[in-house]
DNA sequence: TTTATGGTCATCCAGACCGG
DNA sequence: CCGGTCTGGATGACCATAAA
């Protein structure tokens, strides 16, 4: 495939070098690299007037070129760009911005070889602009971006499900046992000594990071193997067996591990080791806790220690001169009090956890598969090996020409809208049902209403959404349309549609209305949605 | 003599900042 | 404005000391 210098298809505007006196708590957000890599990081704000060119709008692509070298799409209110990040201004006649994102991600590793500086890796603007990506014609680009977006969306969906299962675990705990500190269910309280029979601490060894283990090496775990609350067998350092003189504790299935040191936030992270790892052993900062099985279930304890309120109780016992590396002693830990529900309940909880974990394992396996598929798709796409002839991008999406940022007015969009309308006007008209529905609503007893299914015609909805928006606001941000089409409607996932619909219901000028219908056969109410005219 | 504890020092990353 | 260095926080390495 033809290679093109990215400097020829887009302009890269570097962010503004804000000084600390520019920061405040009011005004516009300042986008720093950490805000892109970690959404939980707080923003700095500035009330100063900075030139227009540093403003980033919703949908803008950003490339960080210092330390973290990656590309991000900004989905947020207009904000200022900090130094070390480029804002990408595309030549829309030549390149599709989503295609560009995928193409750059695919080739980003080769960019790091240009990185300069000793303490901190930088990419020099000139080198960056010289970087080449494969560039087929625009329609092909859109098709590639479309396929990859689909794969990406599936991956995200798996990740969401996995996170959801984690949440479910937490709620299951709180539902069964209540908050462990307030102890609203009045469980018998006991000392940690009653449930933990012994604590074994590992031994300190230095080693080489990020490498595979050789024949004559063992891995000493790092705190980070436990930090996230899930055992991570890859977080170790390699140590030559010859150097190991002290007694070590090998990492075995069922071990209940806890970190005795870290920042206050992360101290007392714990997890259960899922299987034997004969080549890994514990470092001095990790404990292996033995549980008195007559009194407690370690799955229960593992969940308990992860509940924020109880974690705080443990954290309070940590000490140290530097806030950045606090320690807990065994005595202090064993001196803590905890609620100890009857073993039967704990076992029941553990069974539920096992079920959720099994679901999670399935989702994780699927996620790995998808990620592999995604990788191979990426590679084939940029080698020009994908059969794009079979790819039909949704007609609606094709109807819109590229618009150079900003807003699409009603007139801009009218030809495309007309085309859509022609296609959809004959569709099963929710319209004709509307009158009957309204009659029914009048007779409803709203107190007895239950949520139910949402009958939903995707194509018709797209048309209605767009038309309504145009009528109501006269113009619509182009990117909003693009996103709807690309992300909300590429698949017919019920939950996604539901999310979308409920978002719409909460809008100031909603295009949906929730209505309630009595089903004569089932003898109960269910909700339906009506598109407002 | 061994182990647990509570540190400090070193390193790396990310951001602050500055000279040309 | 650009390209680089300085600085501080987070984490890992490792140790002196006290207790067992």
TrEMBL record:
Residue ranges constituting the Type I restriction modification DNA specificity domain according to the UniProt record: 4-162
SUPFAM superfamilies with a match to the protein in the record: DNA methylase specificity domain
CDD domains: RMtype1_S_FclI-TRD1-CR1_like
Alphabetized InterPro entries for the sequence: Restrct_endonuc_typeI_TRD (IPR000055), Restrct_endonuc_typeI_TRD_sf (IPR044946), Type-I_RS_S_subunit (IPR052021)
Keywords from the UniProt entry: Coiled coil, DNA-binding, Hydrolase, Restriction system
Domain of life: Bacteria
Coiled-coil boundaries: 353-380
Gene3D superfamilies noted in UniProt: DNA methylase specificity domains (3.90.220.20)
Molecular-function annotations in GO: DNA binding; type I site-specific deoxyribonuclease activity
Biological processes, Gene Ontology terms: DNA restriction-modification system
Enzyme Commission designation: 3.1.21.3
PANTHER family according to UniProt: TYPE I RESTRICTION ENZYME MJAVIII SPECIFICITY SUBUNIT, TYPE-1 RESTRICTION ENZYME ECOKI SPECIFICITY PROTEIN
Family: Belongs to the type-I restriction system S methylase family.
Protein name from the UniProt record: Type I restriction enzyme S subunit
Species this protein is from: Runella defluvii
């Amino acid at each position: 495939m033809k290679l093109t210098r990215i400097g020829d298809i887009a302009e890269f505007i570097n962010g503004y070098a804000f000084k600390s006196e520019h920061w405040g708590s009011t005004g516009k957000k300042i986008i720093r690299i950490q805000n892109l890599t970690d959404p939980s990081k707080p923003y700095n704000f500035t009330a100063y007037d900075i030139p227009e060119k540093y403003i980033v709008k919703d949908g803008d692509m950003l490339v960080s070129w210092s330390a973290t070298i990656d590309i991000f799409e900004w989905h947020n209110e207009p904000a200022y760009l900090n130094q070390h990040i480029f804002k990408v201004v595309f030549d829309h006649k030549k390149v599709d911005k989503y295609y560009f994102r995928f193409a750059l991600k695919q080739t980003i590793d080769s960019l790091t070889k240009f990185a300069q500086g000793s303490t901190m890796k930088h990419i020099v603007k000139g080198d960056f602009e010289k970087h080449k990506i494969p560039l087929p014609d625009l329609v092909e680009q859109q098709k590639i971006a479309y396929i990859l977006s689909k794969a990406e969306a599936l991956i995200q969906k798996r990740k969401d499900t996995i996170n959801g299962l984690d949440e479910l675990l937490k709620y299951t705990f709180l539902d069964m046992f209540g908050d462990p500190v307030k102890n609203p269910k009045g469980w018998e309280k006991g000392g940690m000594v009653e449930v933990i029979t012994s604590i074994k601490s590992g031994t300190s060894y230095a080693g080489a990071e990020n490498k595979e283990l050789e024949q004559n090496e063992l891995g000493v775990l790092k705190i980070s193997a436990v930090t996230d609350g899930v055992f991570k067998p890859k977080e170790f350092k390699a140590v030559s067996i010859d150097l190991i003189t002290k007694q070590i504790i090998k990492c075995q299935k069922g071990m209940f591990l806890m970190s005795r040191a870290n920042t206050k936030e992360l101290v007392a992270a714990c997890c259960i080791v899922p299987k034997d790892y004969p080549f890994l052993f514990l470092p001095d900062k990790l404990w292996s806790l033995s549980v008195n099985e007559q009194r407690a279930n370690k799955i229960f304890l593992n969940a308990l220690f992860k509940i924020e309120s109880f974690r705080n109780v443990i954290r309070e016992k940590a000490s140290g001169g530097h806030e950045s590396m606090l320690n807990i002693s065994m005595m202090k830990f064993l001196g803590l009090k905890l609620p100890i529900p009857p073993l039967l309940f704990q076992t029941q909880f553990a069974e539920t956890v096992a079920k959720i974990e099994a679901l999670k394992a399935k989702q994780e396996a699927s996620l790995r598969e998808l990620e592999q598929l995604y990788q191979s798709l990426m590679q084939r796409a940029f080698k020009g090996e994908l059969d794009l002839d079979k790819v039909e991008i949704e007609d609606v999406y094709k109807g819109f020409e590229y618009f150079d940022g900003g807003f699409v007015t009603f007139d801009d969009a009218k030809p495309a809208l007309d085309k859509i309308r022609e296609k959809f006007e004959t569709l099963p008209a929710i319209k004709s049902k509307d009158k009957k529905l309204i009659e029914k609503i009048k007779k409803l007893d709203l107190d007895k209403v239950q949520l139910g299914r949402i009958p939903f015609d995707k194509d018709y909805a797209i048309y209605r959404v767009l038309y309504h928006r145009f009528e109501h606001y006269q113009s619509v941000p182009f990117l909003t349309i693009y996103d709807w089409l690309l992300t909300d409607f590429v698949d017919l996932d019920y939950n996604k549609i539901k999310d979308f619909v409920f978002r719409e219901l909460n809008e100031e000028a909603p295009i949906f209305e929730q209505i309630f219908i009595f089903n004569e056969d089932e003898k109960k109410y269910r909700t339906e949605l009506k598109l407002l005219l």
